[in-house]
Specification:
The protein is of the alpha/beta class. It is built from 9 helices and 12 strands. It has a 6-stranded mixed beta sheet, sandwiched between helices. It has a 4-stranded antiparallel beta sheet with strand order 2-1-4-5, with helices on one face. Strand 6 and strand 7 form a beta hairpin. It is globular, with a radius of gyration of 18 Å. The structure holds adenosine-5'-diphosphate and magnesium ion. Magnesium ion binds next to helix 1. The site of magnesium ion (MG) has 3 residues, from helix 1.
Length: 255
């Protein structure tokens, strides 16, 4: 099906113990679409991204990525749980960038970027290095390939984390507050890499507090509160004319 969304969440529920953290999330993301998720702390934004990326199992509803159920393989009308190996294969299609960069501290920048392509995808080292160098140029860090993560600024480390995710040639990129841990003067360099990706047509889901960036780059902005989507729309609709009271009062506080 051509117009099937790349990510489809319908009534997705997730609990930790007795606490229901996602109470029925509906989000759909078309191929090439940039969706920004905003909302107060604790509303379930990270948990939702983690479900999309196979890091948490949902308890109810339907969650599909690339036309396939997350966590399951469909055969006829039956669903079979994925093995760890199958899960790893599916996850290789998704790039994720976290608030804290999670680079391997004992590896150089170049080694960080080629690690997954060579180990998971069995790409020959030389080919992986070539791709890594292209990506380093793309994020403006060609001159840092031999550096260790501890020698980088936060903005540089986050750009490397993005390059590392892109080295797997993902179909989908997830960003969970990628600039929240950065000094203000380093935020722009990371956002500009993300802006470029959006322009190139990458399908992206981004949790962010950078509302100016969301306004400029998002196709759709989703406001989450209390484990569900309260309102979604174009940046113009959601920022200029929010209909839900909870969304309006959140925006008044943060804008
Ligand atoms: P957000 O990213 O919007 O701030 P989260 O998805 O991180 O929200 O968290 C939503 C709620 O789920 C919070 O109350 C948080 O404490 C809880 N939570 C998240 N992960 C876990 C976990 N692994 N175990 C128990 N509770 C969790
Ligand atoms: Mg979070």
């Amino acid at each position: 099906m051509v117009d099937q969304p790349y990510v489809l969440a319908e009534a997705v529920r997730k609990s930790f113990g007795h606490q229901e953290v996602l109470t029925g999330v509906d989000i759909s993301v078309a191929e090439g679409e940039v969706v920004c998720i905003i909302g107060p702390s604790g509303s379930g934004k990270s948990t939702f991204l983690r479900c999309v990326n196979h890091l948490e199992k949902i308890d109810g509803g339907r969650l599909m990525v690339g036309g396939e159920y997350v966590g399951y393989r469909q055969s006829g009308s039956k669903l079979y749980e994925l093995s760890p190996r199958e899960t790893a294969q599916r996850r290789a299609e998704i790039g994720m960038v976290f608030q804290h960069f999670n680079l391997f501290p004992h590896m150089t920048v170049l080694e960080n970027i080629i690690e997954a392509p060579t180990r998971v995808k069995k790409i020959p080292r030389r080919a992986a290095i070539e791709v890594a160098r292209d990506l380093l140029s793309k994020v403006g860090l060609a001159h840092r390939e031999s550096a260790y993560p501890s020698e980088l600024s936060g903005g540089q480390a986050q750009r490397i984390a993005i390059a590392r995710a892109l080295a797997m040639k993902p179909q989908l990129m997830l960003f969970d507050e990628p600039t929240s841990a950065l000094d203000p003067e380093l935020v722009g360099e990371v956002l500009s890499v993300m802006r470029q990706l959006a322009i190139e047509g990458m399908t992206m889901i981004l949790v962010t507090h950078e509302l100016g960036f969301a306004r400029e780059v998002a196709d759709t902005v989703v406001f989450m509160d209390d484990g569900c989507v309260v309102e979604s729309g174009t940046p113009g609709q959601l920022f200029n004319n929010p209909t839900a009271e909870r969304c309006r009062s959140f925006l008044e506080k943060v804008l």
